[in-house]
Amino acid sequence: MIKRMKGTYDITDDIGYYQAVETQINKVSKLFAYQEIRTPHFENRDLFHRGVGEDSDIVSKETYDFEDRGGRINTLRPEGTAPIVRAFIENKLYANPVVPQKVYYYGSMFRYERPQKGRFREFRQFGAEAFGSAEPALDAEIIAYAHTLLRALKINDVTVHLNTLGDKKSQTDYATALKKHFKPHLDTLCGDCNKRFSDNPLRILDCKVDQDKPIMQTAPKTLDYLTEAAKAHFDAVVDYLTAMKIPFEIDHNLVRGLDYYTHTVFELKVSKELLGNQNAICGGGRYDNLVETLDGPPTPAVGFAFGVERLIVALKANDYPLVDPHVHAYFLIMGKQARLKAMELSQKLRLGGLLTDLDYMDKGMKGQFKQSAHKNARFVIIIGDAEIENETVNVKDQLNNEEWTIAMDNLYITLVEKLTAKNYDCEDCDHKGESQ
Ligand code: AMP
Questions:
Q1: Hey, which of 110, 225, 405, 414 would disulfide with 173, CB 3.0 to 4.6 Å?
Q2: Which residue's CA lies nearest to atom 15 of ligand 1?
Q3: pLDDT in tens, 288-321
Q4: Model-level pTM?
């Protein structure tokens, strides 16, 4: 038997959680006026090398690269921002009269990582990007957007970890200070950190191997190396978040693993009770130079990405209430003629917005009844020879065990009336409303 590839998984029983997350993503994105954008799952490899950075872990160690039959080098997207930036430039979205351009995406990302709890080779991200404004208010908006999604999913114990990398000059000055700090201790740091020391010293702070060493805790802080303009930007973000009542804490060692960030960087963390040590559920920041790096016009931007699998672990740990799969009506049929009638009536009910199902296995009455219970049917509708003869159906309401016989022509309207009756809250019924 052919098995699924290492680090991948099938979504079967958990599909309800994914659908709940997707529903809330679409709802909350509308609240913040972000439009969905969909880009291909594979891109030219150079996009990630130039966009994400050669020495980032995801590009140097984790991409899925393959040559296609035309000799092109493709990469399965390991993250969403570089493809969105490419699409922004290629589709000239910068010329769109709507500014800033605010977009969101949802879909699979691929990284060749060592699979472990909460780490997969194919996983899903929900992300958002806003292009065209350098206003710190937009940084605050995007953080509020991420925070609101978690609230919508009833995850309330969330902290925003906030830091700033400042502008170019702040980053250069900070890198010099970091080098001075780490230089005498290089022999205590891991091999990767020794490499980072010469390539990109900021990255040392992001090291998962060395993160708990005291030398990390005493490292210089970005806030002490900001230019005046960078400090004003950061202070404004803090003021906006405070006004919006988004709880945050400043995290001096937060630098994020990707090369393109400038100014604000942030992570949203949920409690360790929900997610253990892998409790960063969303990460993001400002990236004012990436559009230009990828040959677009200079365009400031800010964005975030959520790991959907971690969101789902958090939802489960939090007992997020799912609606059980159900149908409104399930037909129990006796005989060929009854099947014909049930096919006709079920189509009418479906066109009228009722969730409807029937037997396709030629099961006996008992077997069909069991199926109706598996499907959580509210109404069981019985059709046999007598019903065909009289043009009636026998309906059993499973909510209160009432049973009645009605004309086939009245079936639809009767079910709708019952479903919209007061005190019955039908999650996905089109006919909802306090109509009686
Ligand atoms: P990043 O793009 O590395 O900033 O990651 C953003 C979010 O995606 C993280 O906070 C994780 O929740 C999630 N994530 C990253 N890598 C993986 C992975 N290999 N498997 C599952 N989720 C991941």
A1: 225
A2: 307
A3: 999 999 999 999 999 999 999 999 999 999 999 9
A4: 0.90
Give residue-wise pLDDT tens across range 146-179.
Answer: 999 999 999 999 999 999 999 999 999 998 999 8
CA-closest candidate to residue 379, choices 362, 361, 404: 404
Q: Find out if CATH 3.40.50.12160 is the number for domain 15-167+227-317.
A: no
Q: Which candidate, 239, 283, 233, 237, places its Cα nearest to that of 261?
A: 283
CA 27 to chain centre: 12
What CA–CA distance (Å, rounded) separates 154 from 160?
16
| Mean per-residue pLDDT, 125-136 | 98
Ligand 1: centre distance to CA 273 (Å): 19
Q: Which CATH number fits domain 327-423: 3.40.50.10710, 2.60.40.10, 3.40.50.800, 3.40.980.10?
A: 3.40.50.800
Q: Which of 429, 432, 436, 431 is nearest to 356 (CA)?
A: 429
- HSE-up of residue 160 (Cα within 13 Å, Cβ side): 29
Contacts of 68 (CB under 8 A, 6+ apart): 74
Per-position b or e across 251-272, b if 16+ CB within 10 A of its CB:
beebbbbbbbbbbbbbbbbbbe
210-243 residue pLDDT tens:
777 888 888 999 999 999 999 999 999 999 999 9
User: Considering only CA atoms, which residue is closest to atom 9 of ligand 1?
Assistant: 307
Q: Which atom of ligand 1 is nearest to the CA of 119?
A: 20
Q: Are 282 and 246 in contact (CB under 8 A)?
A: no
In Å, what is the CA distance from 164 to each residue of 179, 232, 234, 255? 18, 11, 7, 8
| Ligand 1 interacting residues, C-beta cut-off 6 A | 79, 111, 113, 118-120, 123, 125, 257, 280-283, 305, 307, 309-310
Domain ranges for the chain: 15-167+227-317, 327-423
Q: Check whether 435 has a pLDDT greater than 50.
A: no
Identify the residue whose C-alpha is closest to ligand 1 atom 12.
307
Residue-averaged pLDDT of the chain:
92
- For ligand 1, atom 13, the nearest C-alpha belongs to 307
CA distance 407 to 418: 16
- Give, in degrees to the nearest 5, the angle at Cα 175 between 162 and 168: 70
